[in-house]
Design goal:
2 domains, Arc Repressor Mutant, subunit A, single chain, mainly alpha
Length: about 210
């Protein structure tokens, strides 16, 4: 199945659609789904001895559940961003954490700017400006960088074929991975991997096929 980029995705939003000019609100039900997804991924990472990834997912789940606690403690006022937050320019620290953790957990999936804006309770236009101020680049560029970092980690730590790695990183196919990797890293994925794998390791590798 072909994967869509953050720029081209028009379907499959994990939350109900909001008007583009509205200030999106992440409801408790959305946050519960996000927290449960993070906990399931944390368990999987623990079983695979990926402790650091597991800790990251647990932190993401805690952030989501803590937002629900604050919402019910303070009432409806807590579900909107304050004027001070909107005037600051960049994203607030809690918004940076939430966006970062969401992106890391969903790199293999379609990620839309509209969903990220809803997650941090901002209009799409304000989110785009605030994201650039906080991360130093647009959401699409940041997402590609994170996907390339994941691809590098998988190439160094697994025997997975490049076509499968492309799918794990939310890309359409190996050709898509190669184009982006060449642009952001400066060489092809195969050459990059080959230069960093010991000859003895390369000789014993049997690359699995995608299923």
């Amino acid at each position: 199945m072909q994967r869509e980029s953050i720029e081209t995705a028009e379907e499959m939003a994990p939350y109900p659609a909001y008007q583009q000019g509205d200030v999106g609100l992440a409801t408790p039900s959305h946050l519960i789904v996000h927290a449960m997804s993070a906990l399931i991924r944390a368990v999987n990472c623990t079983l695979a001895d990926q402790c650091e990834d597991a800790r990251q997912y647990v932190r993401a789940a805690f952030d989501s559940l803590d937002s629900i606690r604050v919402t019910y403690k303070n009432g409806s006022k807590s579900t909107s961003v304050t004027v001070a937050d909107r005037c600051r320019g960049g994203l607030a620290p809690w918004q940076v954490r939430r966006v970062s953790s969401y992106i890391e957990m969903h790199l293999s999936e379609t990620i839309r700017c509209e969903d990220l804006a809803i997650l941090v309770r901002l209009s799409l236009s304000h989110f785009m400006r605030a994201f650039r101020d906080s991360f130093g680049c647009p959401p699409h560029a940041y997402l590609v960088k994170r996907r390339m970092a994941l691809a590098q980690r998988l190439m160094l730590t697994t025997d997975t074929a490049l076509g499968c790695i492309a799918l794990e990183c939310g890309l359409a196919d190996q050709s898509h991975l190669s184009r982006l990797f060449q642009k952001f890293v400066g060489e092809s994925p195969a050459a990059w991997r080959r230069a960093r794998v010991m000859p003895s390791q390369a000789a014993s590798r049997i690359l699995p096929h995608c299923t």
